[in-house]
Q: What sequence folds into this?
């Protein structure tokens, strides 16, 4: 298990002093983090601290003002999003963002847009095995799916890209606990099959159980990082994010 | 008013309906991916018609070559518009985009007036297309039939492409949410370009059909058909290709029937009729006749 | 919203208002002197240019009320100008013309009004037309509305072409009395600027501008959208009709093609080039485009350059204007003035209006 002590520059993903934000708001203030091959890393923090912004900056949706995003040693921060996808990064956006006008199957085809077509069926099969509900609703228009189903679809769509690195922005948002746990189990399977995962979560408890390492973000900065096991026992994390008081 | 008469009028209207359908489909597709009323679409149509006129009358080339070159010219015009007018103003608001397309429309039309003058030029319709047949009392012109069948085939092929191919699905994805589509690996610029290519090609074919049917072309020929095409796109539920095509037909046939049924003193009020229909329909159903809003069918 | 600050400011506002009054009266006097000078010293061509500029200012400001401030983008103003033009022509044309060319009810045939009532009738007619056609269109959003407004042009042109008994068909009406002069035009400019300025800083005006900025927000703040939109549109229609009347009594004829989409396009240009939602911007835009059109006109008609007769180049000015507009849209989409007014701070200070 990678505990983060290795050389960051050799990591699969490495954010180096990243600064980024929107028209007039600077959100990220020199973020540095890395994700090693095969890991599940989670990024936790309160609302509005810049977790989604971090993910969007990796995806090239938001352009960084300073710093670099290295993926397999290559600076991808200047690339447009669709090129970043081609490099092997899959993305499941916050709030699901499925194409509501497309069917489940069509959404998954968009997921596979850039990949070779010969093993399309195998990947579709894999997604349908991971999320049997999607198979049942294959031809249904995705705007009429339930929230949980849409979340499965968003993850499935990203998996259709066969990504080396999967970015997940709050996959448990708005889901019933049981469904959230369901999805997290699936993520574990996906990870075991070789996909590296960077996960943004508000459900800190669940996220720490699943992940190998964690970063805690506050007001655009990383304030704490380490192995998830240690984090679970960290007083500050306990008090602030797990709602367990110190005494 | 006999049934034969009504049938006859509907048959006469087939070609006009077809042209409006082709224009409407282009409008609706471009609106779908860009959120832009491409006001210059009527000019793209005019460029196709002009190109065919020149190829036919100056080069004396066969019709199919004229059609191909018309498509090439219109597609080129569409691409130039996209690249040099619309792309630079993308993201600075709907109204800015619209004003740009209005300017492009008037600019292109005026450029053609500047070069060729504003008067009509004859469009040489090949003799083999001028055949007519009688079925009982009903007169059918070859041209009407050919234009209609050609349009129907094109529309069906297009809707199959939109329904089933990666390109079609990507187009629908981009029109739903461009940012997310990009984050799924779709280069939205290429999708927009592809949309302009298809839309402009259809406009060119409509332009050639117009020349064949009415026998002349002029720089301002795109204005009213362009607006009618857009009306059809709105009635069809913007973004809905089948809806646009059907509405184009309805609008074309409706105009002709309007003239046919009312005393001749009213025949000048055809545009008024089109707009009244539009207002009435939009008043009852503000989103158009068919399912709307970037839900491509 | 800011009732507290407003009541606190009442006293200062009073003296500021006094100041403003003096300033305004002074300004009008200066304008009057300038106009008197122009009236007496300009030759026919330049004199006419000043008149055109003035009418264009009226039309641009009127268009700006809807398209700029209220954010309801209309292309239908050509139809409203047409309504105003025909209305004024019908009540001022020589009885002999009306009797021979048209088929009017007796009261209208014999009607011969002076300019002021004729202009009012023009404005009211345009308002009524704008209102009737726009009433259904208000249900439409965004692009659908643009389309609907375009319909006003097409419908009005269509009616003008076909209701021959009243409009004389495609030939149009000739022989309108030459009422339009520098004083009428600029008196209306002054009235319009005054009304706009007062309105835009009033509660009504702010509501209208709120709609222009963000419809959802305006609605959330409890602004009754349809009411204000309708108000803005009627205000705009009235002065557009008056503009059409001034135009008609300058050109002395009116026909279905007098105010087609090209004319609307030119006015849109004046508005956009100067600055959407800016009074001084509209005036600036009207000046620039009027000048450009006038400079291009002789070239277009084939002028003689260094002894060579250049060929006629109809369409040239539209081509160049279109190019110019596209460049503006790309590089300066808010126009030259943006939403600002000339010497903004100064004016705001005088009006005691210190919001942001
Ligand atoms: N498109 C945008 N334009 C301007 N500001 C934005 C935009 N998106 C986010 N922000 C601001 O950037 C900050 C960080 O937002 P971000 O979405 O990254 O937060 P987050 O950590 O993901 O929060 P949450 O847990 O609520 O999803 C917030 O203050 C937010 O208001
Ligand atoms: Mg977030």
A:
């Amino acid at each position: 298990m990678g505990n983060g002590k290795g050389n960051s520059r050799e990591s699969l993903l490495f954010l180096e002093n990243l600064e980024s934000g929107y028209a007039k708001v600077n959100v990220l203030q020199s973020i540095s983090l890395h994700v090693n091959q095969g890991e599940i890393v989670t990024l936790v923090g309160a609302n509005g601290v810049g977790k989604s912004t971090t993910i969007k900056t990796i995806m090239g949706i938001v352009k960084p003002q300073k710093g670099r995003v290295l993926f397999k040693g290559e600076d991808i921060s200047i690339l447009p999003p669709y090129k970043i996808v081609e490099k092997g990064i899959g993305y499941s956006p916050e709030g699901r963002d499925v194409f509501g006008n497309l069917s489940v199957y069509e959404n998954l085809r968009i997921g596979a847009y850039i990949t070779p077509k010969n093993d399309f069926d195998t990947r579709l099969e894999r997604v349908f095995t991971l999320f049997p509900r999607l198979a049942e609703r294959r031809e249904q228009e995705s705007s009429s799916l339930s929230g949980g189903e849409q979340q499965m679809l968003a993850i499935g769509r990203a998996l259709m890209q066969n990504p080396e690195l999967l970015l997940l922005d709050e996959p448990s948002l708005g889901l019933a606990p049981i469904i959230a746990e369901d999805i997290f189990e699936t993520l574990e399977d996906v990870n075991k099959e070789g996909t590296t995962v960077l996960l943004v979560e508000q459900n800190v408890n669940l996220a720490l159980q699943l992940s190998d390492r964690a970063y805690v973000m506050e007001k655009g900065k990383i304030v704490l990082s380490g192995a998830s096991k240690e984090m679970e026992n960290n007083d500050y994390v306990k008090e602030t994010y797990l709602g367990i008081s110190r005494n | 008013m006999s049934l034969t008469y009504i049938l006859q009028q509907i048959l006469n209207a087939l070609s006009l309906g077809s042209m409006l359908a082709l224009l409407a489909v282009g409008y609706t597709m471009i609106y779908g991916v860009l959120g832009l009323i491409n006001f210059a679409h009527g000019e793209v149509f005019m460029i196709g018609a002009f190109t065919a006129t020149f190829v036919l009358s100056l080069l004396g080339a066969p019709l199919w070559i004229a059609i191909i070159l018309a498509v090439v010219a219109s597609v080129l015009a569409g691409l130039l518009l996209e690249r040099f007018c619309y792309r630079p103003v993308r993201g600075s608001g709907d109204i800015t985009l619209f004003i740009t397309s209005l300017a492009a429309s008037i600019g292109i039309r005026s450029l053609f007036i500047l070069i060729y003058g504003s008067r009509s030029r004859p469009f040489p319709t090949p003799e083999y297309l001028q055949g007519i047949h009688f079925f009982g009392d009903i007169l059918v012109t070859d041209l009407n039939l050919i234009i209609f069948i050609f349009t129907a085939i094109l529309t069906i092929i297009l809707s199959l492409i939109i329904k089933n191919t990666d390109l079609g699905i990507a187009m629908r994805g981009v029109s739903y949410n461009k940012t997310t589509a990009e984050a799924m690996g779709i280069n939205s610029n290429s999708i927009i370009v592809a949309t302009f290519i298809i839309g402009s090609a259809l406009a060119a074919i409509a332009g050639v059909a117009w020349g064949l049917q009415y026998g002349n072309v002029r720089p301002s020929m795109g204005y009213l058909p362009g607006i009618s095409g857009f009306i059809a796109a709105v009635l069809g539920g913007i973004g809905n290709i089948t809806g646009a095509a059907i509405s184009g037909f309805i609008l074309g046939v409706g105009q002709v029937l309007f003239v046919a049924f009312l005393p001749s003193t009213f025949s000048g009020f055809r545009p008024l009729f089109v707009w009244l229909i539009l207002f009435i329909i939009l008043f009852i159903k503000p989103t158009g006749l068919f399912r709307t809003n970037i839900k491509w069918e | 919203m800011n009732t507290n600050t407003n009541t606190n400011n009442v006293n200062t506002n009073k003296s500021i208002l006094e100041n403003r009054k003096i300033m305004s009266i002074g300004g009008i006097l200066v304008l009057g002197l300038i106009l008197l000078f122009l009236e007496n010293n300009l030759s026919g061509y330049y004199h006419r240019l000043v008149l055109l500029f003035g009418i264009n200012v009226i039309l641009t400001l009127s268009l700006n009320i809807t398209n700029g401030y209220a954010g309801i983008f209309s292309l239908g103003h050509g139809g409203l100008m047409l309504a105003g033009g025909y209305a004024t022509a019908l009540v001022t044309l020589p009885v002999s013309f009306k009797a021979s060319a048209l088929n009017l009810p007796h009261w209208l045939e014999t009607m011969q009004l002076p300019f002021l009532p004729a202009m009012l009738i023009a404005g009211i007619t345009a308002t009524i037309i704008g209102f009737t056609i726009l009433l259904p269109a208000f249900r439409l959003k965004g692009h659908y509305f643009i389309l609907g407004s375009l319909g006003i042009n097409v419908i009005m042109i269509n009616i003008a072409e076909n209701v021959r008994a009243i409009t004389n068909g495609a030939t149009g009406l000739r022989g309108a009395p030459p009422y339009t002069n520098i004083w009428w035009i600029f008196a209306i400019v002054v009235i319009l600027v005054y009304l706009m300025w007062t309105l835009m800083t009033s509660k009504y005006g702010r509501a209208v501008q709120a709609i222009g900025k963000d419809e959802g927000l305006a609605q959330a703040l409890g602004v009754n959208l349809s009411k204000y939109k309708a108000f803005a549109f009627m205000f705009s229609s009235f002065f557009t009709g008056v503009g059409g009347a001034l135009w008609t009594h300058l050109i002395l004829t009116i026909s279905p093609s007098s105010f087609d989409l090209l004319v609307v396009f030119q006015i849109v240009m004046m508005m956009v080039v100067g600055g959407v939602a800016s009074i001084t911007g509209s005036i600036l835009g009207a000046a620039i485009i009027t000048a450009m059109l006038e400079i291009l006109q002789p070239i277009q008609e084939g002028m003689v350059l260094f002894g060579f007769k250049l060929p006629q180049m109809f369409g040239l000015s539209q081509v160049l204007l279109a190019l110019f507009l596209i460049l503006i849209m790309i590089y300066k989409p808010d126009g030259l003035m943006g939403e600002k007014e000339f010497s903004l701070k100064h004016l705001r200070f005088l009006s005691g209006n210190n919001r942001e």
User: Anything to note?
Assistant: The CA atoms of residues 20 and 26 of chain C lie 10 Å apart. Residues 16-331 of chain C form a domain with the ABC transporter involved in vitamin B12 uptake, BtuC fold (CATH 1.10.3470). Residues 1-7, 344-356 of chain C have pLDDT under 50 and may be disordered.
